[in-house]
Amino acid sequence: MTAKATRYLYLARHGEATADESELTENGRRQAQLLGDRLRDVPLAAVHHGPLPRAAQTARLIGDRLKDVPVRQVETAGDYVPYVPGKEELPADAAERLLAFLEQFTAQEREEGAALAREAEERFTGPVDGAEDRHELVVTHNFLVGWLVRAALDAPPWRWLGLNHCNAALSVIRYTPGRVASVLVYNDMSHLPEDLRWTGFPPEARA
Questions:
Q1: Residue 136 is inside which H or E element, if any?
Q2: Phi then psi for 87, rounded to 5 degrees?
Q3: Which of 98, 108, 120, 199 could form a disulfide bond with 167, CB atoms 3.0-4.6 angstroms apart?
């Protein structure tokens, strides 16, 4: 039997982006640098990021603060809809609003997103082969953070909806052999000063 070790998956949403999402704002760049400083002493094996500029720039800025950690682009860390529920799966009082939000995505986007979500779970979750624990960072977008946190909690597939992640906030999931997945940290912004917190988060939900 192949030995298994614990995986620590660090999830971060990209830093604050410009209105056209072509690059990070000055605040976004600072958020990424501060997140890199926070992760400097974590024994990361790799930083993975999606293909869009805001995620790629965030990952590079984080990588600049780390020592000899490879930064890799992977499509599965991109921005996509991981799952589209049927009306019968949703709470009655929220179903119409949630389905109206999802209508903006085409049938092709929905199909491709579901396939990428399956690949992301296969690539980034669960214990790892070997005797050594592995720490990995994925710099991604709000939808994928919500999807992987939902999966770790074994919540219904539709429940990625309603999970919001701030720019450059950090979540950490632990996958230990023989144990259920554990969300150790969610949407933590302790590395950011007050003026850089809560960006990218719905105003009505800010604490």
A1: strand 134-140
A2: -60, -35
A3: 199
Distance from C-alpha of 127 to C-alpha of 178, rounded to nearest angstrom: 9
H or E, element range at 49: strand 44-49
pLDDT by 10s per residue, the chain, length 207: 689 999 999 999 999 999 999 999 999 999 999 999 999 999 999 999 999 999 999 999 999 999 999 999 999 999 999 999 999 999 999 999 999 999 999 999 999 999 999 999 999 999 999 999 999 999 999 999 999 999 999 999 999 999 999 999 999 999 999 999 999 999 999 999 999 999 998 887 777
In single-letter form, the type of residue at position 99 comes to L
In the Cβ-directed half-sphere of 30, how many Cα atoms lie within 13 Å? Answer: 10
Task: Count Cα neighbours of 14 within 13 Å in the Cβ-side half-sphere.
Answer: 29
* Residues contacting residue 93 through CB under 8 Å, at least 6 positions apart: none
Burial of 150 (0-12, 13-18, 19+ CB in 10 A): buried
User: Do 82 and 113 meet the contact criterion of CB atoms below 8 Å apart?
Assistant: yes
Separation of alpha carbons 151 and 132, rounded Å: 24
Dihedral sign (CA 150, 164, 37, 20): positive
